[in-house]
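Example: Maltose/maltodextrin transport system permease protein.
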Amino acid sequence: MAADKKISQDDLLVHPKHNPKVAALLSIVPGMGQIYNKRYMKGTVLFILFAAFLVAMFDFITTGLQGLVTLGTEPRVDDSRVFLSNGILSLIFAVFFLSMYGISIQDAHKDAKRIQLGWKVPGMREGFKNSWDNSFPYIIIAPGLTLLIFVVVFPLMFMMFLAFTNLSPNNQPPRHLLEWVGFENFVNLFALDIWRNTFVNVLSWTLIWTFVATTLQIALAMFLAIIVNDPRIRFKKLIRTVFILPWAVPAFVTIIIFSALFNDNFGAINTQILIPLFGEGLPWLQNALYTRIALIMIQVWLGFPFVYALFTGVLQSISSDWYEAADIDGASRWQKFTNITFPHLMFATGPLLIMQYSFNFNNFNIIYLFNQGGPPVRNQVAGGSDILISWVYSLTFETGQIAMAAAISIILGLMVATFAFFQFRRSRSFKEEGTF
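Written out as structure tokens, the predicted fold is:
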């Protein structure tokens, strides 16, 4: 049976002597496989493009990759940062060349198989039209992809490579050459007491800040949206407009205003409220605990309008028939909330709510603008209200611990990416089907 099947399959071949393996082997020299397939124009163009790329970029790629290994050989002459940048660019160009090289081989192998089955090689005009039709989506996205690579991927790779070097305030190029130190920065982050204590404290506060501030803003938005959506509430448009106003004001303006209101000496919260009532104010900017409380309250104020707008739209889309059926069944308000309102809200806004947690995890603006991550904490290299992202900023631009900041950034990125990945996977909004 197997032999019969093989014979029947061979009988389907119109040109059995045209071998796809030969086309793939010939494509080791770019374009030769296409010429073997009698696609002469395509093969010629590929050969010229690959040859031009090699002539123009070969020296840059080889020199860049070599510099990526050594990071320079002569202090005060070689700048390790330039060597690192050129090395990363060389990696990007090399990956691009190898990808196109592999695609060229696959293209020759695929066309050869089609020729075996009787496919007729199109003429020059038809071939150009087919190529344009097939490649049009890639041509459209190519500018954006190129910009993404050099604006996003390149800086990320540069930061990641720096995490494995000995760049520090006392070892700055071009006066000194950088060296690869492997995972030494990551080890120091957990082995040295000052770094370990600071990292644990900052990470703990970052997680508390993210969970408490985001959950409170979501809970407040949900409560207000449900109350305002009640049919007995009048002047809904006015109330909704008022609740949206904090979102309309630029966040940095609001944060600076609140920073003045919470000022220990002249802030209105102390001078106009707490001191008249209790005889003394609170050290909002001098005590880490009070600074954190103030930050959470400000973030709730800044964050709830957006979530409120989301919930309002979803609530208005829920059919009243659901609630009427629940009333007939004798359901209580809590049962209607837990079985109708809450599932609808989470299903429709789940991914956006997850983004709120991710945003607050990296919410640099409020931390820095309110109190620059302060107040200072003894035996720590971070302020009392610093979260990971503001600590990284401080290490980079204030103390020059760039390599350590890069190591922390990698850990930070992995945490956010892992959290977002698993939460999005579990979100019912990203499933094709779901039932309430």
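Residues 2-162 form one domain.
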